[in-house]
Design a protein that fits this description.
45% helix; elongated; 156 residues
Length: 156
């Protein structure tokens, strides 16, 4: 069995963090993780938080404006609990006032790879889920009001 998130990065030996891989894939995964060894301390720090949004945000901050591959973001997002849709957790950062760029790279192997770079961070809310829900509601209400407000043609 292979750990998805290494213990020294905040992973556990829980079943959710275990993968059944063949020996070649296991070695490939270990080599891949080694490419991030220079960032092990920052990754471990980011992975220590409870909320996946905070784990992702802290990882982006740790890379100090450099591009972060989405697969590494997925690993850190899943450090405490597996995040099937970690891309949603990245988008949640926008509800908290964070700004980031996304870049797709087409020539780094057989798949298109996505990268993210932090542009602006806001201080963390005491309750991230509540802050995200409040902003989602605010945007939904604003959108409904915009749809209901009469257009210029309706005023004639």
């Amino acid at each position: 069995m292979t750990l998805r998130v290494p213990v020294d990065w905040g992973g556990t030996n829980d079943p959710e963090n275990l993968w059944a891989l063949c020996e070649d894939c296991h070695q490939g995964w270990r080599q891949y993780l080694q490419t991030y060894a220079p960032y092990a301390e920052q990754i471990s720090h980011a992975a220590s938080f409870d909320e996946p949004q905070r784990r992702i945000g802290e990882l982006l901050k740790a890379f100090a404006g450099n591009w972060v591959p989405s697969d590494l973001i997925g690993i850190v997002a899943s450090a405490k609990d597996y995040q099937e849709d970690y891309h949603r957790r990245i988008r949640d950062l926008r509800f908290l006032g964070w700004q980031y760029q996304q870049q797709k790279r087409h020539h780094e192997g057989p798949r298109v790879k996505s990268y993210y770079r932090l542009i602006h961070a806001e201080p963390w809310s005491d309750n991230i889920r509540l802050a995200i829900s409040a902003e989602e509601r605010r945007r939904k209400i604003a959108k409904q009001q915009k749809l209901r407000s009469p257009g210029e043609d309706d005023l004639i």
